[in-house]
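Input sequence (238 aa), recorded before submission:
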Amino acid sequence: ARLSDERCATGVPTAPRSIAGLRGDMTRPILAMFLAALLTTNHAFADELPCRLPVGDKWPKKRKHVDPHFPEKLRAIHATGIVFLDCVIGYDGRIETVQRLAGPDAFSEVAIAAVRRWAYEPPLLDGRPARVAVTVSVFWFSDQSRLQRLYLEGLADSNDLVRETSARDLGHLRVGVDELVGALQDPSPRVRAAAAQALGNNGRKARKAIPVLTSLGQDPDPRVRDLAAWAIKQAGGK
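Predicted structure, token format:
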């Protein structure tokens, strides 16, 4: 299921209505139990949807990373692959949920098992505590050219989160300028924004993208416009 950006929750979780409706000494033991639960759970309240982290925003700092343990038979043949996973980071920074979006079945189980053990600093959005949804890619490769090819394939995926993540990670690798220029026309504003940021990360290698980036000054999405303007400067434009 896709996560909504419109009803996402920020701020400290509120007490259940059954607690808020009580008064006097009756509330104290119940509130104590509720506050204790806040400190020992991931706060995965059913009526609070996580906020999808805006493209270009700084991710919370990772405080625990676990590498997946890939099967030896796949290591032996120098297999290459990427698994795209959509995750929810809870108020306390722990991973609450992991959903596979794309990637080979042979690697998905170990990738999910590893990501479930990751942990981040408690997320903030606009300075307020939040549960955030992010998409990560877990990869293993024998050479960078094969990894680049897999991310380029991801740019053509039917899932817009996979396309967004592929654009973002191509920017980290500082490759794929031609394909990223094409992604600037993607129907998803998040993909367009990620492609613009990735082109900015390519610096002057992305000069050819300046005309298309300039046209995004009329994009209906403000995040796309801002990242396109930043990318133009990074590419040597004005």
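Checked by second reader. Confidence is low (pLDDT under 50) at residues 1-7, 12-36, 38-47.
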